[in-house]
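Much of what follows relies on a compact textual record of a protein's fold. Think of the row as the fold of the chain written in a discrete alphabet. An example makes this concrete, so a full record is given next.


***
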Amino acid sequence: MTPNTPVVARTRIELRDGREGLDGGRVAVVMTMGALHDGHATLIRTARERAEHVIVTIFLNPLQFGPKEDLSRYPRTFDADMEICTREGVDLVFAPTPDVIYPDGDPGVRISAGPLGDVLEGQSRPGHFDGVLTVVGKLLHLTGADCAFFGQKDAQQLLLIRRMAQDLDFPVEIVSVATVRESDGLAMSSRNTYLTEADRETALCLSRALRAGAEAAPEGPSAIRRAARAVLVREPLALIDYLVLVHPHTLNDVPEWYRGEALLAVAGRVGTTRLIDNAPVLVGPGGGALEVFSDVPAVRP
């Protein structure tokens, strides 16, 4: 049986009409910037399990890109994106242009990420999370979704979206979906298409460092950081911005006495591409990774 092609809405009116055509039940939204891959497909699949209808937004949001970032070269693959949406049973695709989302140009009022948006990714990309929260807030209003699905790979973004929904009383459930990885351990990302073959081999140090750190989790925070750094220093071509072990709700570094859930996060540049990755870990006796890593060695032989 051939799947039905999703309705495509380009304007607010078309979105409203498409939304009204969804007959009853919960509506989920999966927000993307396009260039869909198996990670996005997993988000959509998970949303279908939790809701009767799924909306996918495809919008390359200019507010979250800095002046020297990769907005102009970000991959645009709408036809391939529609194939994935069709295959996964999406009901409605909202694919607006910037003038539809921001009809008066750059919005004078934006949602501020606050102090949590100034650390880690926010320190490297000032204003990034204000742009993310502003568009997520607008898309939640426009789609009228009951639940929204986001990947754990963007852990800081996920935390901030949850805080926004809680602090500003958005009537929506924010659902986290585990990071989807390639068979070699590399976290799936639309930016992986920028990597050369050599870059990709170098980039594997990120997930290998996370796995090595997670394997040291029973020994405590210092051992986790030490094991992860030992992998990264073996890859001089990876320019690391940060490697941190932080509390998953505050993003504060965890002290040596800490026991419980933590987030081991890394970011760096490989070639011309900036990549991020993270792994939730349980620190202390009996601890370890709270996600499944592929069967690749943590450190190259």
